[in-house]
Design a protein that fits this description.
Elements lengths: L5 H9 L17 E7 L3 H14 L4 E4 L15 E2 L6 H21 L10 E5 L2 H16 L5 E3 L1 H7 L15 E5 L3 E2 L2 H14 L3 E3 L4 E6 L5 E6 L2 E10 L5 H7 L7 E10 L9 E4 L4 E5 L5 E7 L11 H14 L8 E11 L6 E4 L5 E5 L9 H14 L13 H4 L5 H5 L4
Parallel strand pairs: 1-2, 1-11, 2-8, 4-13, 11-18
Antiparallel strand pairs: 3-7, 4-6, 5-6, 9-10, 10-11, 12-15, 12-16, 13-14, 14-15, 17-18
Helix pairs in contact: 2-6, 2-9, 3-9
Bound molecules: flavin-adenine dinucleotide.
Cofactor: FMN; FAD
Organism: Nitratireductor rhodophyticola
Subcellular location: Cytoplasm
Length: about 425
């Protein structure tokens, strides 16, 4: 793998960028692997990378039905933060945050991590109480989060409308300064490139259609559109399609799949310095390095695998954005799209062994798993390699929905981006 360096970039600039080698190969599937990861999103590719890097397991294939990063990884609005309420959540999201910090150097690939601050607006007394509770809980866990008055919020984000005449006036905000964004495609490409360099096979256009089990019930491999592939261990990391995959092995998971939409505006000069979220009106916004305003909303209200969503959701979101930021009223929207998010009852993920020997699942990230990509992949690789959870993901079991030991971020925040 050619290392990116100032000198390599300068040399290639001189010769029209014709000397860059292929970033990852596209091999034919082998007959057998030690581990198969289903799904080449950030979490799946990252898992393969850490299996090789941290555990020396390189006889691994990542199987992807479409193109790598073409699922939610390439469709999300890239908000990164770790200021969740519960200790378990703080553990996993902050583990991720620490890995984001050095990820570009680790992968030798610029994932454009930008800790520009994530500000969550409070619009009513309930919001104020909830965010202050989060701030105190976060501080106990060593996670930065601070309270801002409306004036301080406007100083941090000048386009913000803090008029008390607004339908949802801004009564303050919680700011996580280490929060921010990263370039989603680059995360998938960076992990793919680094994993392939360590000998992992990334096989695109290869849909898994069945999970095979031996007489003892243990996993023996998968059926795919490119034939049968054997494996001692299978890790399902398929986001919105996780329950479909788990059904193939006869395992029921408490997931519902919903469309979640996002949209971008025409590109403009830098005008928006941070990320702003409003859970109450359910809209959030940031500006990409290309200059587009990146805008997101809540999920559609119905389950679906359609990767599109209802127009009324986008209209509602833009109503809210225009009220919070009147300077954007005349902006033109460029394009919108949808992804399929897998939502658990408590809005926390499942990263665990399953009742089937050799089958592992990493799912349920719902509307907020991009931020967790490095941390999730890191601890899931540990779980698959050692057949036991890492202490950080130990609470994120399937059994919690039976035992009642929920990690109820749904109740804590009413939204879990
Ligand atoms: C519009 C939108 C906005 C979002 N905004 C944010 C945000 O701001 N911040 C945040 O943290 N999170 C956000 N998310 C959530 C985030 O995108 C996801 O939680 C995260 O990207 C999930 O990553 P993944 O690698 O698990 O899944 P994916 O990237 O979806 O990868 C799963 C892969 O599995 C493949 N697959 C499925 N079935 C099969 C099969 N049978 N065989 C082979 N392959 C299969 C899919 O094609 C897909 O590529 C958002 C999501 C959406 C849709």
């Amino acid at each position: 793998m050619r290392k990116y360096s100032v000198f390599a970039i300068a040399r290639e600039a001189m010769r029209g960028h014709r000397g860059w080698p292929e970033q990852w190969s596209s091999p034919e599937p082998k007959k057998n692997y030690d581990v198969i990861i289903v799904g080449a999103g950030g979490h799946g590719l990252g898992t393969a990378y850490y299996l090789a890097k941290e555990h020396g397991i390189t006889n691994v294939a990542v199987l992807e039905k479409g193109w790598l990063g073409g699922g939610n990884t390439g469709r999300n609005t890239t908000i990164i933060r770790s200021n969740y309420l519960y200790d378990e959540s703080a553990g996993i999201y902050d583990h991720s945050m620490k890995l984001w910090d050095g990820l570009s150097q680790d992968l030798n690939y610029n994932v454009m991590y930008s800790p520009r601050g994530v500000m969550m607006l409070a619009h009513n007394v309930h919001d104020v109480q909830v965010f202050k509770r989060h701030i105190h809980a976060n501080r106990l866990n060593g996670v930065d989060n601070e309270w801002l008055t409306p004036e301080e919020a406007k100083a941090y984000c000048p386009p913000l409308n803090i008029s008390t005449e607004a339908r949802y006036p801004v009564m303050g905000a919680a700011l996580q300064r280490r929060g921010g964004t990263a370039r989603h495609d680059a995360v998938a490409w960076g992990y793919a490139r680094a994993a392939a360099a360590r000998g992992i096979d990334i096989i695109q256009n290869c849909e898994v259609t069945g999970i095979n089990r031996g007489p003892d019930g243990a996993v023996t491999g998968v059926e795919t559109t490119r034939g049968t592939i054997g494996a001692k261990k299978v890790g399902v990391v398929a986001a919105g399609h996780s329950s479909v995959l788990m059904q193939m092995a006869g395992v029921q998971v408490p997931l519902e799949s919903y469309p979640l939409q996002a949209l971008v505006s025409e590109p403009v000069k830098p005008v928006f310095p941070c990320v702003v979220m409003s859970n109450t009106v359910h809209a959030y916004i940031s500006q990409s390095d290309k200059g587009e305003l990146v805008i997101g909303a809540g999920t559609d209200q119905y389950t679906s695998y359609s990767q599109t969503g209802g127009l009324h959701i986008i209209q509602h979101t833009l109503d809210a954005i225009c009220e919070m930021f009147p300077i954007f009223t005349r902006m033109k929207m460029l394009r919108s799209w949808g992804g399929i998010v897998d939502v658990t009852p408590d809005r926390s993920p499942i990263l665990a062994k399953t009742p089937v020997k050799g089958l592992y699942v990493n799912c349920g990230w719902g509307t907020g798993g991009f931020k967790a990509t490095p941390g999730s992949a890191h601890v899931f690789a540990h779980t698959v390699a050692r057949d036991e959870p890492h202490p950080i993901n130990a609470p994120f079991t399937l059994e919690r929905f039976r035992s009642g030991r929920l990690i109820d971020e749904a109740a804590a925040a009413a939204v879990a981006h």
